[in-house]
Each structure stands twice: as C-alpha cells, then as structure tokens.
Amino acid sequence: MRHIGPIVTALGFLSAAAHPVTAAPLLDDKPRIAVMSAFEPEWQVLLKVLQDPQEHVVHGRRFVTGSLNGKDVVLFLSGVSMVNAAMTTQQAIDYFDITAIVFSGIAGGVDPSLSIGDVVVSAQWGQYLEAIFARETEKGTFAIPPFLDTQFPNFGMIYPNESEVVRDGSTEPEDRFWFPVDGKLLETARQVAGKVTLEKCAGADKCLSHQPKVVVGGNGVSGPAFVDNAAFREFTFKTFEAQVLDMESAATAHVAYSNGVPFIAFRSLSDLAGGGEGENEMGVFFALASANSARLVQAFLAALP
SS in 3 state form for 81-113? Predict the structure, then answer.
C-alpha cells in the first residue's frame, strides 16, 4: 500500500500533461447572481417575473439569464438531490460570471417552533447524512471502526461525519461539517425579513391557521434522503440544532465554499419531515411554500447594493 501514492501521483502528472486543464468558455460575460431552485414549481414563480430572458443549455440543463428585481441573474434548476445540486452549481460557476449564489426552495421543518409556510434563512449548512454505517456488535449496540471517529452521536447504525473539502487557494484538504452562509448576504436577508408578508393560503380551501414568518439565522442540514420520520426528525433537531432539512442546500454551500463564491439559501417549510399529524403535508403546501420563498428572494434581490 505504501507504493500507491507515488504511482497515483505519477499517473496524475502524466494524465495532466496529456490533457491540460482549460477553463470552460463563458456563455455570458456579464456578472450575475445565480438564483437556483431544486424542482419545477419552485423556479416557475421566479421565471414568470424574469425580464429579458435568454436561454442557454449546458449538458441538457437550462440556464436562463435576465433581470430580476433590478439585478442581473441567471436562473436554473439544480435538480433534486445532493449530486445534482453540486453538479449544477459548479456548471453555473464554470459557464457564467457568478458573483453570488442564492437558493430558493422548499424544505422539511425540523424545529418544533416552526410551522408550514415559514421561511428559514440559515446561517450555516451541514451535510448530516455524510456518515459511517456502523457494525452491530450485539443487538441494538453499534461500533464504528477504531480508525474512524465522529463528533456526533448516532441514530442506530448511522454515525454522522464530516466532509473532506478542498478550497480554492488552499494547499491541503480540510475536514468540515458546517458551511457558512455569506455574512453580508445574511445581513441583507435580516434587513428585509420583517418587510415581507408571506402567503397563508394555497387555495380557497387550503389555508393555514397561522401567519407564516421569516426566521434568519441558525442551522440547516441537507442529505440524499426525503425524510418523513418523526424519530429521525427529533434526532436531527437535537443533534444539529437544525431548523430545516432538505436535499440540496449543503451541497451547494460546499461547492460555493470551495470556489470562494458567496452563498445564501431561502427555504420555506412545505412539510414537517414526519413531525405532523397524518400523512406528509408537502403534496398540499409545496406551491405555497415555493411562493413564500420566492417572494422573500425577490425582496432580498431588490435590497442588494
């Protein structure tokens, strides 16, 4: 095993020499804010109000440039999942002059003090399902290998772990769990939070009994699983002090951090991730949640310098 490193290094050098790295050609040279959503209903709200739209296609993915609330933007769908989010975020950075990344979409509520329709703008995001699946040593007892460690408690066999990150300008990879949101963007979100009135009805017969609110700060987590489980929701809240969970934001935050691009995410609660009574609420309230997130994002863009 001691000889693998030098061999891999040599092969990597030869490969790099044979295939020199070149930057992707920009499809548009105007500095723009990337405004992304995970799936169709989320971005349609913003696409309808985009001015001077012009479509570009990268490997089958649509990127639409234009103006939104006085700011030059490029809108696109990440696609659902951590892999799709990471891939499309990097594509946007490679093919456009991206000055900041804004995510607008829905999420599952984790904090019991939050309700459907609320919009959360987390201060940091973690990949909480980056994990070690532990060996069961006896019934109901689990142990991770002695050469691994984790800073978090387990949920059964699942032991959350950090991610290895390589950042632009760094010489060594780092282990990191939390990816911070840009401080200036977060402050702008805080300034507009109290000025936006959110929707409470998704139709004449689909109204919430409460007025949705905006919460700025705290923690959000993301992973490659749709969560509709009360016990795991409780574990997530207790372990990470998370307010929301989704399947894209932390992956986007990871890529933004690696590239040195400011990032922020606006997530409106479409469901309670298994914490509500009866069946999952997303099928009823995803349109309402999408609209609330998009409404706050528009006010945020208008308030940016």
Answer: CHHHHHHHHHHHHHHEEEEEEEEEEEEEECCCC
